[in-house]
Write a structure and sequence with these properties.
Helix content: 40-55%
Radius of gyration: 21 Å
Number of helices: 14
Oligomer: single chain
Length: about 325
Amino acid sequence: MSGQKPVRRVAIVGAGTIGASWATHYLARGFDVVATDPVAGAETALRAYVNGAWGAMTGLGLSDGASPDRLEFTADLREALADAEFVQENAPERPELKVELFADIDEATPSNTIIASSSSGITMSDIQARCRHPERTVIGHPLNPPHIIPLVEVVGGAATTPQTIERTISFYASAGKRPIHVKKELAGHVVNRIQSALYREVLYLIQEDVLGVADADDAVSWGPGLRWGVMGPNLLWHLGGGRGGIEQFMANLMDPMAAAWSTLGDPELSPELKQKVVDGVRKQVDGVSIDELATRRDAMLLALQAMRATYDGAGPGRSGPRKNRHLP
């Protein structure tokens, strides 16, 4: 970051659900935000989203100068990008659209500005194909909703420079995010692959009538999911090894676990299985609306983050350095 001035103005390209959530996050961290989206009514929807989420951000902790009043909107892409110091793109997941849009963003953005894409599956090597300055383009994939979940995956493309990766990680960390560097391009990056691997087995267990839909959810959320909200699997197995730690786990427990991998299932995604899940979820929610479920989820996630921050020493809304950023 040597010689780089601090980022104070972020451009949000695409103000749908993910873009609006990103805008909320950056505003809460005290940035000036300019958003752009060609869809009719986008500005009204964006401001409503920010205002609706601001109470949660206040509870999480606002940075100095944070205000919804620092949000600007324009339908003109070039106007939004003219003075941008960091760009967060959130257009629909269509490769041809991303390629064309990134070429336009690259053309209109100051040469030293990093351009990040929230793409959940398209690689940056594909997206940057028509950029004149592909070295400053990068994946910055959040988990939904970005203003609540700290994690962001940083993935370079074939032409992305190591300096861009370093600057992007440093920026996200300074903005209250928890960036991880995905060192190789893979379809779905990393987090979606982990989620998909777990859900594949969940669907298999439902298909085989081992568990009902609600019990399958409970098996995750009231079991390992509680632990995963505090520590990742490697640290948890370090504890699982007892006094001998991870070395003891690898010596005595890893091989038996690996031997069971061959029994993991491969569900057939039939119409019957899909309907079975739909029926189970509808019974489970019992008429509770999507908005109410999302509110419950976000409230619990905020409470968990507040609890983690008491042990962490730093977190969203806090500027202090972590003693070890890889520990919870």
